[in-house]
Specification:
single chain; mainly alpha; 10 helices; 68% helix; CRISPR type I-E/ECOLI-associated protein CasB/Cse2; Cse2_sf
Length: 211
């Protein structure tokens, strides 16, 4: 196996895995009663897998069928269990920081404290605090991007990941959490023509004033 294939494989397999989670949510809304019952059974098993490893067989089937990298297995199992708590349709770009920010309208002080705890906990205690956070999101039906969550959790639960990598994940969560809702993202176009035009206009206005 080449170095290139190793670099490409985990993201592709993550996509396969996350798609299988979203199919469970689709199953809940199916007109096929058998499919609905099957989705409910699997989701219930995923929830139970968070508290009892002896009941994790459904999670194992879902996770290992998508072939996670060995160092990411815990992150995939945790993400599957969290999805079992709060199954939903795909919500691209809804990071944990954004989702928690949207909770702040209901008891801002409490949510701030919960989020600070999430940023501070070590890898051993992270699953517990993530379960609490996702239950809160579920209570208000606030959407979360599970693909992005998996990417982040895979770093935070990786014992071999550099501390700087983990710090960047936490900083990204914090940035999204504290970003004002009305803040707009200005695209970096790399085009200086607008700046040149503004400077030219400023020079012309100055000359007109002097004349």
């Amino acid at each position: 196996m080449t170095t290139e294939s190793i670099a490409v494989r985990p993201p592709r397999n993550r996509d396969v895995f996350v798609a299988s989670l979203y199919r469970l949510h689709s199953g809940l809304n199916s007109t096929n009663a058998h499919r609905v019952a099957d989705a409910r059974r699997v989701l219930a098993a995923l929830r139970r897998s968070l508290v009892s490893p002896h009941q994790a067989s459904a999670a194992y089937d879902l996770v290992f069928g998508a072939e996670p990298a060995p160092g990411e297995q815990d992150a995939w199992l945790l993400t599957a269990g969290l999805f079992g708590i709060h199954p939903q349709a795909r919500a691209s770009g809804r990071t944990l920081g954004i989702a928690m920010r949207d909770l702040k309208g209901d008891g801002q002080g409490m949510i701030d404290r919960r989020f600070e705890q999430l940023l501070a906990v070590d890898r051993r205690n992270l699953p517990h605090y993530l379960r609490q956070a996702v239950r809160l999101l579920k209570s208000k039906q606030i959407a979360l991007d599970y693909g992005r969550l998996l990417d982040d959790v895979a770093v935070l639960l990786d014992a071999g990941a550099a501390e700087e990598q983990k710090r960047r994940v936490r900083l990204a969560w914090a940035r999204d959490f504290h970003k004002p809702r009305h803040a707009a993202v200005v695209p970096a176009t790399g085009d200086d023509s607008a700046d040149d035009s503004e400077e030219s206009a400023h020079v012309n206005n100055t000359n007109d004033t002097e004349n």
